Automatic annotation (TrEMBL):
<keyword id="KW-0479">Metal-binding</keyword>
<dbReference type="GO" id="GO:0007155">
    <property type="term" value="P:cell adhesion"/>
</dbReference>
<dbReference type="GO" id="GO:0030313">
    <property type="term" value="C:cell envelope"/>
</dbReference>
<feature type="region of interest" description="Disordered">
    <location>
        <begin position="134"/>
        <end position="170"/>
    </location>
</feature>
<dbReference type="InterPro" id="IPR006128">
    <property type="entry name" value="Lipoprotein_PsaA-like"/>
</dbReference>
<dbReference type="GO" id="GO:0030001">
    <property type="term" value="P:metal ion transport"/>
</dbReference>
<comment type="similarity">
    <text>Belongs to the bacterial solute-binding protein 9 family.</text>
</comment>
<feature type="compositionally biased region" description="Basic and acidic residues">
    <location>
        <begin position="147"/>
        <end position="165"/>
    </location>
</feature>
<dbReference type="InterPro" id="IPR050492">
    <property type="entry name" value="Bact_metal-bind_prot9"/>
</dbReference>
<keyword id="KW-0732">Signal</keyword>
<feature type="signal peptide">
    <location>
        <begin position="1"/>
        <end position="37"/>
    </location>
</feature>
<dbReference type="InterPro" id="IPR006127">
    <property type="entry name" value="ZnuA-like"/>
</dbReference>
<dbReference type="Pfam" id="PF01297">
    <property type="entry name" value="ZnuA"/>
</dbReference>
<dbReference type="InterPro" id="IPR006129">
    <property type="entry name" value="AdhesinB"/>
</dbReference>
<protein>
    <submittedName>
        <fullName>Metal ABC transporter substrate-binding protein</fullName>
    </submittedName>
</protein>
<keyword id="KW-0813">Transport</keyword>
<dbReference type="GO" id="GO:0046872">
    <property type="term" value="F:metal ion binding"/>
</dbReference>
Amino acid sequence: MAYASFSQRFLPLRRRALAALALAASGLLGGSMAAYAQQAPDAAPAPAGPLKVVASFSILGDMVKQIGGGDVQVDVLVGPDGDAHEYEPTPADARRLAAAQLVVVNGLGFEAWLPKLVRASGFKGTTVVASEGVTPRDFGGDATGGHGHDHGAGKPGEHAHDGNTDPHAWQNLANGARYARNIGAALAAADAAHADAYRQRTDAYVARIEALDARVKQAFAALPPERRRVVTSHDAFGYFGDAYGMTFISAMGISTEAEPSAADVARIIGQIRQEKVPAVFFENVSSPRLAQQIARETGARVGGTLYSDALAKPGLPAATYLGMFEWNLSQFMAALKP
Ligand SMILES: [Zn+2]
């Protein structure tokens, strides 16, 4: 577990300098926010009432709730169905951060927009990198060589991951267990009065994660190898594929452009036909248009919606991390069982 400052952990020097420049120039970080930052206390206050935690996106928010229970108050910056790759923080986010004692982030270059927000908010608490200790994977080389990762929401040039590291480590439940342990340890360290409760809830939660991990492995192992191939919108399932023996072909995320070129789409369609890929899936954080086109042109079955980078809205089956995995598993099995 490490608690290094966010900017140290997250940004190489060049980008830190750029972010500082942007901070000076940005309207978001102008007058009112600077004034707010100056009012922030010099150190995070001792816990009075629930520990105030900010999570960068919905999946981490759920993990903090599962482990924190009634001892924490969790604010999530990028909520259900939100795209945490491309997020524009609001002044309200800065106020939430300023009031928090802990901020939980994914790391691995996922939240490129967050260091600037952390600095602007005057946040003085602890940054917890949930992915600390997982083995990072690179986006695989494909026909186009190393590639960037983009949800295609526009704003060319704004979104770029550091290097070629795949940030979607939560899509392997074994990594999810690591996230839970990191979060549990951080909560216990920040709020010693409830440390035992955090530990107990962490253990119980990790046991559920590990049980589901075993079940997902079993389910995929039972599929014939030629059925273990699907198309998704963006390349969010690399860790999932490595862990559970699936091959994912991503329709987007094959170039750094917002939209794949006609040649890219033609290449994917050719690959799907040649390899007889059985199903094409949508994702809750991506436009369904491209997946629909690919399904139309290849005759591949249209699977359901997968939850990749964000949970579903409260009340839906995929509204929690484990619920998301259960849901995705059921969608895969419905489309891929022979
Ligand atoms: Zn993603």
